[in-house]
Give the backbone structure.
Amino acid sequence: MSDPSFAPRPTLEAVAARAGVSRATASRVVNGSEGVRAPLVERVRKAVDELGYVPNQAARTLVTRRNDAIAVVVAEPETRFFTDPFFAQQVRGISKELTARDNQLVLLLTEGAADYERVGRYLAGGHVDGALIFSLHTDDSLPVLARRAGVPTVIGGRPGWTDFDSDHGTLYVDCDNRGGARDAVRHLLGIGRRRIAHIAGPLDQTASVDRLDGFRDVLPETDPRMIAEGDFTPEGGARAMAELLQRCPDLDAVFAASDVMASGALRVLRTSGHRVPDDIAVVGFDDMVSVAEWTDPPLTTVRQDIEEMGRLMARLLLRAVAPPTGPQSVPALSSIVTPTHLVVRASA
């Protein structure tokens, strides 16, 4: 007796027979092509559901020239990616958008030069339709590798390399980092703070530079000793806070360029006997609920919609790789800068 668990997979021919259409018509419907009358489309889709038909991806790629797969390339090592909630939120947004469009997400992490070569080979190998690349550093070659591979690309964050040219088709999604930083510092001034320090992110990333520039827009005469560079980790925020207390023991406020660094700063302030916000007020950046609402005290912060930014990246890329269906069917592509706003909690 045959085992039903090893029944042969339904074929496209079986779908066509069940629907009472030709194989070519069934193929056009399964592959999303146009030119099939609505009643026939409905019959084919019903047959697909009844038979449990799953298209052969390799054969489908030959017809559509699409893999229905998108690479998400993160220019950070695994240890950073899997511990920073920022990445979880951004990838969640990307995944939701890709899933809604029946696309697969292929995650690629980079640890060093050898990984860059591996990623470049993968992108050039025709495995994916496009790439979403984020957490870039100044000297990153990932966008260049993607361009050489001929893969449509969307960048997470404002590109900072000198030869960036939007006319070459490089798109990006970012938030108003500079404006958000200005709002944070103005809030601290508005509650009466005058010795305001800044914990910057790594200055080889444009988000950190833009937030530092926003800080300096409001406080252009700040003593350089009131600025310490962190690395977007709790440990980096703690180290920077300890440096600032040693250099400027009379500071009365701190603006940290991320919630994660602010959490490290709060830990140092607590262990050193400083009351927050009575002695020193603290403002972060990101409004990651898993951090901002669980610090002690809850963190005042600048909110950027991280998950929505991930979705916007995916939408831009899917629009770029979609086959044209008419002379004006696809809106003009553009880069997107999303707004930020201050969320006031107990730390400032």
